[in-house]
Amino acid sequence: MRTTTPDGRLPRRTLLGASAAAAAGLLTACSGGTKIGADQGGTDAAPTFSGGEYKGPKVTLEYWNGFTGGDGPHMQAMLRSFNQRYSGRIEVRNTTRQWADFYPAMPTAIAAGKGPDVAVIHNDQIATFAARRTLIPLDDVVGALGLSESDFIPAVWQAGVYDGKRYSVPLDVHCLADYWNARHLSKAGLKEAPKDRSGFEDALGELKGAGVAHPFWMPNKWPAHLMFMTLLWQFGGELYDEEGTRALWGGDAGEQALNWMVEQIRKGHSPAQVAQDAQYNAFKNNKVSFTWDGIWQINDLKETAKSVDWHLSSVPVIGGKAAVWTAGHNFVLTTQAGRDKHKVQAAKFFIDYMSARSTEWAKAGMIPARNTVRAAPEVAKLPQIRLAEDVEVFRFLPALPGVGDVQTKALELAVQQAVLGQKSPADALAEGVRTADKVLADNKQKYAK
Question: Which CATH class is domain 176-320+402-446?
Answer without folding.
Answer: alpha beta
